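seq as requested:
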Amino acid sequence: MLEITVPGYRTYKLENLVLDFNGTIAKDGKVEDEILEDLRLLSLKLDVYVISADTNGNVRSLFEDEPAEVIVTSKENGSKEKFDLIEKLGWENTVAIGNGRIDIKMLEEAALSICVMGEEGCAREAMLNSDIIIGNREEALKLLLKTNRLVATLRG
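struct tokens:
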């Protein structure tokens, strides 16, 4: 579990990390080594889920030896499937990271939501339904590894 107290705001007791794949932690279907290392560190405190429609057809193979559960959604109903995963895990103890229209419901539902505005950009609605907007995938994960950054942003 990852417990984060934000003075003047709230205390998070996070157990799950749900990540969109393309545009969020991957660029053009590829994940940088730094991202994988950060996910390994986060998996020591959180259950990690990578959820994707798998546009490039490689998400399962990329995470074959990694401490993350991969969930491939349908191409037609991915938004609902992401929302359903957050509900199943428990919104109150889940952090979600995404960037697209398909992530809006997931970001809105999670206790803590981070929108990544990377090279692919991000959907306006994803930004509006997130607690934090950050400029790249590497720094999104660092918010959870160096929680004082997150506290400084959300402090009341």
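The radius of gyration is 14 Å.
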